[in-house]
Amino acid sequence: MLEALGLAHDRTASRRLLPFDLRLTGGELCGVIGPNGAGKSTLVALLSGLLTPSAGALRLKGRELAHVPLKERARHLTVMMQRQPLDFAFSVRDVIAMGGYPLDLPLPALEQRIDSLATAMDLQHLLQRNYLSLSGGEAQRVQLARVLVQRGCEPSVILLDEPLSALDLRHQHQALALFRTLARQEGHAVLLVLHDLNLAARYTDSLLLIGNGAVLEQGPTDKVMQPGRLSELFSVPIERYQTRDGLGLFTSIAGSEL
User: Fold this and answer.
1) Number of domains in the chain
2) Which GO molecular function annotation, any one, does this entry have (predicted)?
3) Model confidence pTM above 0.90
4) Which end of the chain is more exposed for a tag (fewer CB within 10 A), N or C?
């Protein structure tokens, strides 16, 4: 659905990413993990077309992304970056509705999408609130709902850069369950940047490890998440245990370094 071939960026030292290949397919939830400054946000910016690559090709449903008109692109690819500035006193419902603009949905269909996402993300009681009055976690859930309203009416690509950073534990699991549903039941290709290894292990189907401006490894989550590899990536000893349901549980040893 979204294919990167030899994609790279080296025009600025702070946003450097060595050439990599990646194919995002419908029905899959793909995670991205790595230390701060590794290149995760640069990866999302490149894949979304917000950052111009210095090399390589990027294709959305077989077409060069740069040649797809912006409004048409927005119907097939939606992105949430880390910072979502909004300084106007819109209602929460109006902010979420902004995501539907590229789709030209009939009003009843748009309202149904808004209400469905408000229910899924615990926002029903906030729909009439002034967006500027929200807490950080509430505002992030609203921005997530805005992005997800924009998802294509047919399977499309959803790119999310640290979408859980301000959410409490319950809302983190709630959001990840929704992302997985959008992938598996609606056929969207979802890529998200995460910092929590255990959430990555529990919810993602595949994983990219990024470090020092390079995609170091990619593949099925259970094969990529090896304690030795993770310890090397994060420069802290990491151990893996098994939960009662057979999933990996990862812990780091406080105060220890490799």
Assistant:
1) 2
2) ATP binding
3) yes
4) C
